[in-house]
Batch of 4 targets.
Target 1
Amino acid sequence: MNRQSPRKVLVTQRFFDPDSLDYLRSQGCEVSIAPLSERQGDGDLDEEQLLALLADADAWIVGHAWVTARLLAGLPRLKVIARRGVGYERVNVEAVRASGKVATIAVGGNDASVADHAIAMMLALGRLGEAKARMVRGDWAIALGRDLYRKTIGIVGLGRIGRGVARRLAGFDAEVLAYSPNPDWEYGLEAGVRYVDLDRLLCESDYVTLHAPLLEDTRFLIDAAALRRMKPTAYLINTARGGLVDDRALLQALQDGVIAGAGLDVFLSENDPLYRPTTEALLALPNVVATPHSGASTHEGLQRTNLIAAQCVVAVLNGDTPPASCVIADGRGHFPSEE
């Protein structure tokens, strides 16, 4: 395409900041923001709505919409799909490659925001609990909380976010255990993090926080058996992916006092409506602190991920390659008609 003609970029996310818009426009892009209501996300748009919105788009900055083979087949002009986030289980990576397009994620943009969120959930569970609800009922009796200071924290998945959590925990003089299928022993020594197997982490930790990707072998990593290994005074934190935890088993464990509580930013019901009653039951429990998959959604975090997504879009439209860590599929040079 002629570099001088506008490259059309569609953003199907709210909270797209002025600086990222200005950057795209300075690179010769014509930017449109999808008209989403306050309570609507692009994951609520069906395939026909997306096809209509993206009909003349060269690039798509997407949040939680499903990127399917059928959708991509109906968008021959589209060159790049840039996720404003790091998870991509809703992107059909093979279909992106087969269609000759590029898909990217915004690596590094929201790490700090999610790490902060995990710590906030630990503090809320240990110190706040249902205190406000009791005060609203007129009960001002002092409820005893639990310190995060010098507790044992188990981090499952020690990537960028997990390491961010570990750094923050140093300020609490916490003992940090970590489980990873590929331990970085040098990092562990430098950071004061002790790698252990999952069983030991579950048994010894006062808080277990999940920061692993959702893969075939990590689905339901925390099931009924895993929950029974945890201390009855321990808390589970999940700011990663809903499928890492068997929510029905977690609900039963919380009701039975198997563990003390849970901080949940993600739920199985986000992708499977059959789990909606389970989510609602979890939300009703006094020992659950919950947020609506918003761990990465701070003003600063979204500004960072917006800009990374925008930079990936510009790189592809210019015929360049985005940072390797951001590319999840690159189908350029793939010509299905010649196969």
Note: The chain has a mean pLDDT of 94.
Target 2
Amino acid sequence: MALDLIQARHEREIHASRRLFALDERLHAQLFARAQPRGAYPLLHKLRDYYADATLLLGELPRLLEELTRIAAQFPEPSQVHEFARFVEQAIADGDNLYATAD
């Protein structure tokens, strides 16, 4: 099971989108163990509930990218965080929102 982040222009298009990033439980737990204080990572905390859907709008994505960059420095091996950041960068470049869907 994973929290799927799907890149799409509109929510109605998420089922047709092939661009997604699967946030597994392990990475999710590692992110939120480090995303403290909560106020310093408000966009990342929109994804805190692993079993709930969430939306991150295009205008929020540059700040999410900045949060991911800061939190990556706290990981001894940040490769998965960098993959997540690249996914967010691509969504920004494509002008899309991100839709988190819980399986």
Note: The radius of gyration is 13 Å.
Target 3
Amino acid sequence: MRLYIMRHGETAWNVRRLFQGHSDIPLNENGIALAEVTADGLRDVPFDLAYTSPLRRARQTAEIILRGRNVPLIEEPQLIEIAFGECEGSPALPTPEHPDQDPNLRNFIVDPEHYKTPKGGESIPALCARMRTYLDKLIHHRELQDKTILLSTHGAATCALLNAVDPPQGYFWRQGVPYNCSYAIVDVHDGQPELIAENQICYSPV
């Protein structure tokens, strides 16, 4: 089994640096363009099937990557992003539009160990547990052992999945928040996942 774990393309809320979580924000024009460039970069990858988060930004990304292919795309609720509850739509980092920011929300990016879950949100440990459970189920699926699979998901969800494969040295975000349309490659042999590459992109970052 080979997994391509991909973060969705750019959205308007990414540009504005707002927490999206479960808010169903579509790709913007640049996000569509990034997905199209990535589709071209992965055109020779023989995907057998794909799973996507139910949120539009992830589904749109997967649909663009798979355009023109006869590859099943299956909605998987476990691939949804971490929820921020009452803080969805709040700034992730200070911006001219939002110069004042809740220090706790800043912790989510710069000091995740001290981040406190907002009301109605999901904690980072709960996200990690959810992703470990999903990954374990996927990699032990007997009928998928020889498949190449696309997982279209989100930034925090991607890191949680990769942390289940390759535990980080004390920092949830590993190399930092993944680029839009970046992907990681995980190979699975005899139920054992191995991280081959991460935060790969098919375009030049600005």
Note: Residues 124-139 form the longest helix (16 residues).
Target 4
Amino acid sequence: MSRNDIRPTLRPRALALALSAAFAAHALEPAVPAPAKPADAAPAASATARAVSAGILAGIRQGAQQDRSAKPAQIQCVQAIAPDAVAAPVQQVIEASLGAEDRAALETFYASALGAKYQAAMLANADPDKTFTPDEWARAKAVMDSPAYKKLRAATVSSNPLAAQKIGGVLNPLLGGCFKD
């Protein structure tokens, strides 16, 4: 499984392409505690949702960097978007699309030390053979090959109307601010 196959390409004048590329669930963010919120605030996004959000943003950043027509200010603007910028809508999509058992299985991985290590490696495009022991890689790959993970991928790709609405509804204005003429 190649980590590079999940990185979307972004063209500044075609923001729709950012949403037509698969929302990247492979590139996972390190499991870090969410900032404390008031008691009446919406529940914090799960490590799973934050991981998917970080993957989406990592792919968009890479696409902007590779786009020869992107201006430095546009690239800088995309780089400044927080990795968890779409974690809340990703959480909504996950809750609407995956059962409790699948959510729990994924959260167990993403909130673990191995999940954090996997996320950091994916975001850095690190070579798994140099980053993980054979046992660690086998355990991480087992999660990526699991039915729960496949459901997560299917739920969070932009071809899913709910993901396009929820995630795209937050992502499009952010990108629009970066690529306005």
Note: Residues 61 and 78 are 6 Å apart (CA to CA).
